[in-house]
Every structure is written in structure tokens, then in C-alpha cells.
# Entry
Amino acid sequence: MNWLSDIFLSHSPLQAVIIISVIIAVGLALGKIRIWGISLGVTFVFFAGIMAGHIGLSIDPTILHYTENLGLVLFVYELGLKVGPGFFSSFRKGGMELNLLGLGVLIIGTAMTIAMSLGLGLPIGEATGILCGATTNTPALGAAQQALEQAGLPASGAALSCAVTYPLGVVGVILAIIVLRKALIPKGSPLSAPKEEPDATFIAEFKVCNPAIYGMTIKEVSNVAKNKFVISRLWRDDTVSIPDSGTVLHENDHLLVITTPDDCPKLKVLFGMQEARDWNKKDIDWNSIDSRLISRKIIVSRPTINGRKLGSLRLRNQYHINISRVTRSGLHLLATPELVLQLGDSLTVVGSEADIEKVEQLLGNTAVKLKDPNLGAIFIGIVLGLVVGSIPIAVPGISTPIKLGLAGGPIIIGILIGRFGPQFRLITYTTRSANLMLRGIGLSLYLACLGLEAGAHFLDTIARTEGLLWILLGFLVTIVPVLIMGAVAMKACRMDFGLTCGMLCGSMANPMALNYANDIVPGDYATVSYATVYPLSMFCRVIVAQLIILLFV
# Structure
């Protein structure tokens, strides 16, 4: 039976694959267990790795280091690719406030960490590990370890302090949410959710009764208005037609216009009158408006269309159809000529059935093709991310240049490619399931290796006074910033409890606490707030983890 013991105990590539696979499988299985309604999910892989290291399992250090870095790079790049399309748009009015509050959580926690390090004499590496564990931010730990190695210091202390503070980092945010709910929401009051935000597009019916635009073409009116809108249908003498840019407007024409809620009052002044009928109901049968015209959704699945502007296709002139709006990742966009199309976009097309079939052939409309992940773009992005992460950046006052490293470079490139890749004809589309799988594999590999590396000394550390001090300090770094900024959000900014929970979970990079918030708060407002805050908070934490090391080493 020596061969069996060799498989698990003798260092080899085969043994490394088996040990890591067993850790991940056990961790994911145990992560499904719910205690008081809370489950750790993939995070339990980290603790499974710790237990494996504690009982004496190990793998070749070179393979361990390689696998840990590969998992980290794959996870953060796919994360950046996922949030990239909405990253910059999150800085609108509501998103700006959420992100500023999230940065407040980060600033308070960072200030507490530095104060603890200076006041208690903690090595800065261990203090940074406490910060990473308290905020359940393993990519930031990866960045901190890179900075420690760059400075010629051991990184084991950071990993160990992160490991012992991580559990209460998960639970602490949930406890803070419970405290905020009890303290700031009157007993018996419902956990109110904000009013549903209007769609990015708005459909309205206008009557042309402004003499100033009689006899003008739609293109001329559009140039005068300076507002973005799309006229989907035109009623004239009880006849429905699809207008184009050269259509001349007459008195008493009725126009079905797709615009934005903010521009609707301006268009009312432009056209003269807005009809009272509500065209934004979900139960409207668009195909019953006119028997000759139908409305159909067409998916962009042909790679040659990716990155092209909608106006360059000249669909309206060639096929006599109209595209009223474009749906991308659940968001409805105005179908303006300047809109850059991406694979996976769903276009709402109005026209005759024969013309719509021709548009389908041009755009693809084959969802099956979209299920194949574009692996080439993924690895190109990873290479670019690693190159960017290796660029030394000089910071005034710091003798050693900082680097974005394995965590910072890939997430930045992932965000940029996710947002701007299609404009350079780079196919970045992956299905949600493919993105989740790649992120899950990367995070599982990273957590398994991280836990295995720290596990040999984990329980011994907890048993020492030093370990108990780490746990206490980590719990304070978790709960104090969350309570302070949660109170500021709800009292000073009068933010809804659901949005506040999402903001706090996103700023702490804590999806487990988000699951708890979704269980107690109606609607998906916590999830939306989390997605708005998470990218900037994650990026800043990765950078801050390195700056703390390089500034105070």
C-alpha cells in the first residue's frame, strides 16, 4: 500500500493535484452547511486548506506558489471582466454617493490598522494581514504578500494573521447589519426598499402640434433638440409607419418615442403635446398595434458585428426597420447611431417580418454561439494584466517603486477590456455561467493553497496570546468602520437600509454577508448597491495593501 501513501504524502505534480482537489471538494461540500442561516460557501475552502495543513499535508513549495498565483490572477481578471461594463457608469449621482461611503469604510479601517501597528508595535506585515482578514479580502492579501516579497520580508506572517481574523471578518459584517437594524429601524417597521429606479429608457407618445417643427424632417428636429431619442412608430391618418431620418413631420402626427425620463419633459416642449397613455407597461402587445409591423428581439451573435457602431450598419435605410432600444446585461439602452454594439446585445427591432428576418441573418441571432467562451481574449487580457502589474510606479516619498502586482494589474486590465474591448473589436463576451466557473476555479485554487500554506501553524497561533490579540484587533477593524459608515448612510444621507447593506458588504468584499442581507431585505437593492461599490473598493484595497507595506516597512 506504499503507492497509496505516496499519492498523498510524496511531493510530486500528481500528489499536488490530488491534495488541492481534495481540499477544494471538501471545502465546497462543507461550505453548503448553513448555521443560523449563514453559509460560508467557497470561503470554506480556505478553512479546509488550513485543516489539511494542520494535519501535516503539504505539496511542493514551487507548485504551491505557482497554483496560488494562477488562481489569484484568474479570479481577479474574470472579476474585472465581469464588472468592467458597468464600472464607469457606477459613478453617476447615486453611484457616486455609494462609492464615497464605501471609501469611508476603507479609510477608517486602514487608519485603525496603521494606528494599531504603530501603537502596539505590531509588524506592518502582520497588521496588513489583519486588515485583509478583517475585510475578507484575499486579493488584497495577495497584493500585500507581493509587496512584502518585493521588500525582502517574509510573507508568512501576513497570511497567518489573515487566516485567524478571516472567520470573524465574515461574521462581523453580519453582526453589524443586525445592530444597525435593531438600533436605527423602529421595532415593527418594515425594511422599506427604495422606489424602483426608472429604466434607462422611457417610452412616450407625443402629438406634433408645435408649428416651429411643421415640415421639418426627423433629422432636422433631432439636430435642433440636441436630445437623444428614437422615434419607433408614426401614426398619420390612422396609418402606422416606421419613420426614418428623412421623414417629414406634419401637424397632428402621433409619435412613439423612446427617450430617457429626464429628456421626456424637453421633448414635450419640442413636439407640443404628450399623450397620457402609458407605453411602459410590461403587458403591452406590441405586435397588435399594426398587423403589418411586428416587434422582435434579435441577439447579436455574429463576431463581425462586435465593436461596430449601430449607425454604421445602416439597418434603417437598407431594411426599413427601426431599432427602438438595446438590452445589455439587463439594462435598456437608447439605440443611438453612436452606440457600440457588443456580442450578447439584444436589439428590439420593429418592421415587417420579411425585413426582420434579413436583419436576423446579418446580426446572427444564434444564442448557441454565445455559449462558447472566447479563451483567446481571456489569456490575452491576463498577459496584459501581468505586464501592467509588473510596471514599477514611482511614488513621491517612497524609495521603492510600487507595483500593481498579480492582483492589481489583472483586475485593472479586466475592467478596461470589459468596458472598452468591443470598441477595439476584441470579443470579451462570456456567458454568466462561464464567468462564474472561471472565477470559482481561480478563487478555489487560491484559497486552497493559501489555507494549506498557513495551516501548519494556524491552531498554534490561535492558542498564543498574540493570536488572540490578532482576532480581537481584526474584529474591531471589521465592525467599527461598518457601524460608523452604516449610521452615516442611514442617518446623514437618509439612505435606504437595503442600499446601505449592499454598500457595506461591497466595501468589505463580503458576499456571505450580502447573502444574509438579501434574505432579510426585499427586492434586489442590496445586490445592486453591492455591485456598484465592489469594483472601486476592491481596486483601492489592493493598492492600499501595498502602500501600507511600502510606506511603513
DSSP finds 20 helices and nine strands in the chain. The two ends are 50 Å apart (CA to CA). Confidence is low (pLDDT under 50) at residues 193-199.
